[in-house]
């Protein structure tokens, strides 16, 4: 068996209007072995978009399917990484604002044992006090119980054993309890859900019950004679197989007694029972009794009625087990054969001495359906897969194995009678879990994208004439330029998608009246223009963003005197509503807008010019849902932009030193600073813009020197991956 991996919390059929989505934001990854290593693969098919995170390489999907792999880590760490992944709908194949449907297939796999090993790994040897161990059991907590026959004493007819006891080992292998009261030749052990252990004392004809602390709490004796096997069921009843007196086989024994959780004898099963030496219970609660005296296995239902007798091929049976599918395995000690019966009682397979089976004394199956055979005759334990093929032979430390047990983590324990040790082996099988989710995301309009191709362009306005022009960008390089038109008396104050067509439009303010107008853009040209409205006196445009889940940009204002903040929700280029958001603390002014928690909604960034303190308002549905102190800017450093410089779906803050030109960024996580990084400095160049100039996901940085020459830093995972010169505009043209 391997760990059981569970993935939960992934929403299927999730339709959102967010510009970016965290498809695994609520996912939970659990593993039955908490410190086991797991890995993940994520495949997604989208018309257009990419999955981003610092741990992933960035890539844009224009069509088809892309698969990412996340390296091996613990389940909890993998869960955290998955929750941080962001799907960002780029706009390479469809206009921004067009819904993009993405289907994610997430597979989490166990990597510690992805490939079954030729020999399962020996991970521990228990020997503290172990003395001729004959029986084993494990409980739900992972404890291991060992039934020791005790000291070996040679007599004229063979050997006797004395000082029998039961030892309890913790999951870490520490001896935590020794039980000896009433214990004498413990031939079988069984545990219940409460952690109590039951001991079949063959010589005493009793079954002792010890609680989890090792205290004797009950002795069962009613109807018990030389017990050889035990099993407990889901309700806490214990079944006890009674051997027969060899001299008087039909006068006593040859029964299975059922005691309830209170210790009362509630049933006796005897139909066909003859020298019973092994018991097992299947998933529906039916009891199977191995009869060594008549070479049969009998199945009794929960009412105690005989329903099936298995006998085909059985000869001198000694051990019995049932797998999760209901298949029954019977070990024939004398003939060194293993018989397999399906849940209907038909014999379907046989494993023989030809593949190493030799005097099989114990059987066990794991959750993967593999069968383990303890071979007393050749000091091995063999592992067979569900098809009956031999996949491993265990021999390290194995010496006259008499019992097998598998714990909840899937580890195999072997009782070595002659070696007086318990060997623990780690077993390996491929294990994985997979879930699928469908998300529909409305992609963001890329800042300053005047053609709707998913790439930011560069906007200029002439300081003298008011003329407006553009440089259209392609893969970080100048593609073409054009003068858009005159705007005398008007200054560019923002760009955004005010009509929801996926293309950035241009917002102007009249220098005298304060009236706002916009130019609607289409494929890099003006397709229309209209007056928007005139804000109240004292209010200035402070930014453009999406402060709700709508598909159009909104206009943000702040009153310089009162600090009050409002936004205008836009519809097809006109004001649909005005929303009062709140009042900023005294001395704080809006310096930029960005998505600082990765939820697809724009948030608001403030700075106190006197102290350098920086804070943000996290927005949702045009309201503040959280406010954070982000940090204090170093003396001499100005905020020069915000952007997603590591491709994780969250905008970061960009600073530049007034004196040295050094550029640094603050990486944000859920609205607060998580780290900072020095990016570089170019003498004489100032940061003049941030945008998706390459269209590859992460924001890039635009710089300009005193002579007007424009250069670009292409960013990847918070570092400058490449730098290049773009071009030099004509004197008098200023970048917006």
In short:
By secondary structure, this protein is mainly beta.
Protein model, in words:
Helix content is 1%, strand content 53%. It is mainly β. It has a 5-stranded mixed sheet with strand order 2-40-9-5-7. Strands 10-39-38-37 form a 4-stranded antiparallel sheet, with no helix packed on it. The longest helix is centred in the N-terminal third of the chain and has 10 residues, at 75-84. The model is unreliable at 57-63 and 114-118 (pLDDT under 50).
Question: Can you lay out the helices and strands and say which pair or pack?
Answer:
Blueprint (H helix, E strand, L loop, with lengths): L4 E4 L5 E2 L4 E2 L6 E4 L6 E9 L3 E3 L12 E9 L1 H10 L1 E3 L11 E11 L10 E6 L6 E6 L5 E5 L2 E5 L2 E5 L2 E5 L5 E5 L6 E6 L5 E5 L4 E5 L5 E5 L6 E6 L5 E5 L12 E5 L5 E5 L6 E6 L5 E5 L4 E5 L5 E5 L6 E6 L5 E5 L4 E5 L5 E5 L8 E6 L5 E5 L4 E5 L5 E5 L6 E6 L5 E5 L4 E6 L5 E10 L16 E5 L5 E7 L2 E9 L4 E7 L8 E6 L5 E7 L2 E9 L5 E7 L8 E6 L4 E8 L2 E10 L4 E7 L8 E6 L4 E8 L2 E10 L4 E7 L8 E6 L5 E7 L2 E9 L4 E7 L8 E6 L4 E7 L2 E9 L5 E3 L1
Parallel strand pairs: 2-40
Antiparallel strand pairs: 1-4, 3-8, 5-7, 5-9, 6-8, 9-40, 10-39, 11-12, 12-15, 13-14, 15-16, 17-18, 18-19, 19-20, 21-22, 22-23, 23-24, 25-26, 26-27, 27-28, 29-30, 30-31, 31-32, 33-34, 34-35, 35-36, 37-38, 38-39, 41-42, 41-64, 42-43, 44-45, 45-46, 46-47, 48-49, 49-50, 50-51, 52-53, 53-54, 54-55, ...
């Amino acid at each position: 068996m391997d760990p059981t991996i569970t993935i939960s919390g992934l929403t299927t059929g999730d339709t959102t209007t967010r510009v970016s989505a965290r498809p695994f934001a609520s996912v939970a990854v659990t593993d039955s072995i908490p410190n086991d290593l797991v890995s993940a693969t994520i495949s997604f098919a989208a018309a257009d978009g990419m999955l981003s995170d610092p741990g992933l390489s960035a890539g844009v999907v224009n069509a088809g399917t892309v698969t990412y792999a996340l390296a091996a880590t613990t389940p909890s760490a993998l869960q955290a990484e998955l929750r941080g992944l962001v799907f960002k709908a780029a706009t390479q194949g469809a206009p921004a604002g067009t819904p993009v449907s993405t289907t994610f297939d997430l597979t989490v796999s166990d990597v510690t044992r992805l490939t079954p090993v030729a020999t399962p790994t020996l991970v521990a040897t228990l020997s503290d006090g172990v003395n001729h161990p004959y029986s084993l059991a494990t409980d739900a907590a992972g404890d291991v119980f060992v039934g020791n026959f005790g000291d070996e004493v040679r007599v004229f007819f063979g050997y006797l054993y004395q000082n029998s006891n039961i030892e309890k080992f913790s999951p870490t292998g520490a001896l935590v309890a020794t039980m000896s009261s009433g214990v004498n030749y413990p031939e079988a052990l069984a545990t219940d859900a409460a952690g109590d252990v039951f001991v079949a004392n063959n010589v005493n004809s009793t079954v002792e019950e010890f609680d989890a602390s090792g205290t004797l709490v009950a002795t069962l004796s009613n109807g018990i004679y030389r017990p050889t096997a035990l099993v407990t069921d889901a309700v806490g009843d214990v079944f006890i197989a009674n051997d027969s007196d060899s001299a008087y086989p039909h006068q006593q024994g040859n029964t299975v007694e059922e005691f309830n959780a209170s210790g009362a004898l509630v049933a006796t099963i005897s139909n066909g029972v003859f020298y019973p030496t092994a018991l097992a219970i299947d998933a529906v609660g039916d009891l199977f009794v191995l009869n060594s005296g008549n070479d049969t296995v009998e199945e009794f239902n929960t009412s105690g009625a005989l329903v099936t007798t298995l006998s085909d091929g059985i000869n001198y049976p000694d051990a019995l087990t049932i797998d999760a599918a209901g298949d029954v395995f019977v070990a024939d000690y004398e003939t060194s054969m293993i018989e397999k019966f399906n849940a209907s009682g038909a014999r379907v397979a046989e494993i023989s001495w030809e593949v190493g089976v030799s005097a099989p004394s114990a059987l066990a199956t794991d959750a993967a359906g593999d069968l383990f055979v303890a071979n007393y005759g050749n000091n091995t334990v063999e592992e067979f897969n569900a098809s009956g093929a031999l996949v491993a032979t265990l021999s390290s430390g194995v010496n006259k194995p008499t019992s097998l047990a598998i714990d909840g983590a899937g580890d195999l324990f072997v009782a070595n009678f002659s070696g007086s040790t318990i060997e623990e082996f780690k077993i390996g099988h491929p294990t994985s879990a997979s879930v699928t989710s469908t998300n529909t995301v409305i992609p963001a309009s890329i800042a300053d994208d005047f053609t709707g191709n998913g790439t930011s362009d560069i906007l200029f306005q002439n300081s003298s004439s008011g003329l407006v022009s553009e440089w259209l960008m392609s893969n970080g390089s100048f593609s073409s330029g054009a003068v858009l038109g005159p705007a005398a008396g008007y200054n560019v104050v923002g760009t955004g998608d005010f009509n929801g067509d996926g293309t950035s439009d241009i917002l102007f303010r009249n220098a005298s009246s304060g009236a706002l107008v916009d130019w609607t853009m289409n494929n890099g040209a003006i397709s229309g223009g209209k007056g928007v409205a005139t804000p109240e006196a004292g209010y200035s445009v402070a930014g453009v963003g999406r402060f709700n889940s709508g598909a159009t940009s909104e206009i943000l204002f702040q009153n310089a005197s009162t600090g009050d903040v409002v936004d205008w929700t836009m519809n097809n280029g006109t004001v649909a509503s005005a929303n009062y958001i709140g009042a900023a603390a005294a001395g704080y002014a809006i310096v930029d807008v960005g998505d600082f928690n990765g939820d697809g909604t724009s948030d608001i960034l403030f700075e106190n010019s006197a102290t350098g303190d920086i804070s943000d308002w996290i927005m949702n549905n045009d309201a503040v849902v959280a406010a954070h102190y982000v940090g204090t800017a170093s003396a001499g450093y100005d905020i020069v932009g915000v952007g997603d410089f590591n491709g994780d779906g969250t905008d970061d803050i960009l600073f530049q030193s007034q004196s040295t030109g050094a550029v640094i960024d603050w990486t944000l996580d859920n609205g607060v600073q998580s780290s900072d990084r020095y990016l570089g400095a170019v003498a004489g160049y100032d940061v003049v813009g941030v945008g998706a100039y390459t269209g590859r996901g992460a924001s890039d940085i635009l710089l300009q020197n005193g002579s007007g020459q424009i250069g670009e830093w292409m960013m990847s995972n918070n570092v400058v991956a490449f730098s290049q010169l773009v071009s030099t505009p004509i004197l008098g043209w200023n970048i917006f």
